[in-house]
Amino acid sequence: MQMISAQSKGVFVIAATPFLPSGEIDLASTDKMVDFYFEKGADGLTILGMMGEAPKLTHSEALSITKQILKRAGDKPVVVGVSAPGLAAIGELTKAVMDEGAAGVMVAPPGSLRTNEQIIAYYANVVQTVDEDVPIVLQDFPLATGVHISSATLGTIFENHANIVMLKHEDWPGLQKISDLRAAEEKGRRRVSILCGNAGVFLPEEMARGADGAMTGFAYPEMMVKVCRLSNRGETDKARDLFDAYLPLMRYEQQPALGLAVRKYVLAKRGVIAHAAQRKPGADLSPLAAKEVDILMDRLEKRLSALR
C-alpha cells in the first residue's frame, strides 16, 4: 500500500458504508462498492468519514470494514478517518489501521476549539499521539465542525508538522484559501496536497485555484475524475461542460441532513450497493424526493448523451 504524501493528486472518493435494512454492515456490497470506485477511475479512497457514518460504528466494526476495504483495494491508497472527541481514541484507531496498511489518516478538529492557539495546539497533540511517521490529512470543514481555520493558522500547522501532508479543503466560501496556500508555497513554504470536498460543487474553480483533486462522495466519481483530468490538461471548457451536466443533481444533494440519503439512493439505483439504508439515526428519502432524484438522474443521462 502506498502512503499519501504532499505530492498526492487525483480523486480520493469518500466511501459510503453499506448497510443492510437490519442495520448490519453489508459486506457483499462493500466489495462491490470498492470495485466500482476504482473502475470509475478513482486514485484512492477515504473511509470512515462523515459520509461513512463512522460515529455509528463500533470500534470493532470500524476495524473490520477497514480490513475488508484495504484487502479489496490492493495496492491503491486508502485514507482512514480517525476523528474522535479524545486523543486516546484517535491514537488507538490510527495504530490499528496503519498496522493493517492504511495510506494515512484524516483528522477533523473537535467543535470545542475556538482560538487559533487552540487549533495549533490540538494538531500538535494529534501528531504527538499518532507518531510523526503517520501521514495525516487535516480536514477543514467548518460547516460541519463549527471550527474556522484561517489560511495563516493552516500555514503555521503545516510548517510545524511535516507529516500533515494533505488538506481536505471544505471551507465555504473557501476558494481564496486555496489561493493563499499556493501563494505561500511560491514564497518558500513546503507543499501540501489539497483535495477538495463539499460534494465537488466548486470543483472547476478549485482546480483553477491550484487544488490537486477531489476528496468527496458524489455518487458519480467518473465526473470528478474526468473534470480533474481535463482541468490538468488545460481543457477547461470541456471540464465545465461536463461538470454543468451533473450540477442539478449535485445541488439537490446539498440539502442539509438529506445529502447522504440522496447519495446512497443514487448508489443503489446504479447497482453499486444493494440497499440505500443508513444506520439509525438517519433521514430516509420520501417517495416524492426519490422521484425527484429519478428525474434528475434521467435528465443527467440525456445531457451526457448530448455531450458525447
TrEMBL record:
Which InterPro entries does the UniProt record give?
Aldolase_TIM (IPR013785), DapA-like (IPR002220)
Keyword annotations of the record = Lyase
Lineage, top-rank taxon, reads Bacteria
SMART domains tied to this protein? DHDPS
**Family in the record:** Belongs to the DapA family.
Query: What is this protein called in UniProt?
Result: Dihydrodipicolinate synthase family protein
Q: Which organism is it from?
A: Maritalea porphyrae
